[in-house]
Amino acid sequence: MSSSEVALIISIFSVGQMIFSPFVGTLKSKIGGKNSIICGFFMMIATSIGLGMLSLIAYPDNFKYVGVITRFLQGVGYVFLQVTCYSIITNVFKEDMEKYVTLVEVASMLGEGLGPFLGAIVQPYLGYANTMYLFGIINAFGLLVCIIITPSVLNKTIS
Fold it and tell me: Which class does domain 3-151 fall in?
């Protein structure tokens, strides 16, 4: 694969975010805030596993196409999490909005910043596929925490 094809696979994540950002609010209103976050986590888990399974693809063109689709969907899952959290904070937690927006932003930046760093540390020991599976497990832990602590009433509010 050429360096431009690798760049495409990496950057398509942001394209998924840009395309779906305007629609997440409408989808969240239909399925609820908590369900929207859960949907985002499921997409992040599935795409992390999918990225790990890329190592099983022998043909470069198939690798490229599946990689682009998987990273695009990963961007969609990420935007579900991000947009929904901001929406809930600005609509439900108006009194402490700055505090909670800051916490979400810190968590978001930690994920985007520490993810590649953590991947670089563990990849030599786990290999590419297992590193991606580890990220799936980390996202599954986030999903579990979300299911436990996020109130279901957020599925019924205007958040």
Answer: mainly alpha
